Amino acid sequence: MAIERTFSMIKPDATKRNLTGAITKKLEDAGLRVVASKRVWMSRRQAEGFYAVHKERPFFDELCEFMSSGPTVVQVLEGENAILKNREVMGATNPADAAEGTIRKEFATSIGENSVHGSDAPETAAEEIRYWFSDTEVVG
Ligand code: ADP
Ligand code: MG
């Protein structure tokens, strides 16, 4: 299994409830290493650009409104099989379906306000990392 990098966000519902440390601990306990991290309050336009793949979905407006409603922590995570491992520790999109012990099971409040984002494939991981970080900000 190769060492990979993936992109993660701690969403506004979680930063608001002071869960940045608790969520980061779950990521680190899963063997993921935080190799870049910053707190950003994204604009509506940045949210629309980041989630452009979902622009035809009925929840797009709600999602962009929520993601620009407060601070987010954007991170790059590194580790063995990091993309899949992060998705596992995040849990299912809808917290009602998320497995015990996952971040979304423990912390998410709804399918929209679900505490974390994680890239779903190598191509999206590279694209999402580039959207938020320059090369010099990622320090393995
Ligand atoms: P994931 O974040 O698990 O990869 P998706 O890529 O399908 O999930 O959706 C992106 C984000 O859009 C979700 O994390 C969630 O915040 C929001 N979302 C997805 N489905 C819904 C829905 N039915 N209603 C409201 N928001 C949703
Ligand atoms: Mg997704």
From TrEMBL:
Keyword Transcription belongs to the record: no
GO molecular function, one term: endonuclease activity
Pfam families: NDK (PF00334)
The protein's enzyme class: transferase
Catalytic reaction(s) noted: a ribonucleoside 5'-diphosphate + ATP = a ribonucleoside 5'-triphosphate + ADP; a 2'-deoxyribonucleoside 5'-diphosphate + ATP = a 2'-deoxyribonucleoside 5'-triphosphate + ADP
Active site residues according to the UniProt entry: H117 (pros-phosphohistidine intermediate)
Gene Ontology biological process: CTP biosynthetic process; GTP biosynthetic process; UTP biosynthetic process
Stored NCBIfam families: PRK00668.1
Descriptive protein name: Nucleoside diphosphate kinase
Gene source species: Nitratireductor indicus C115
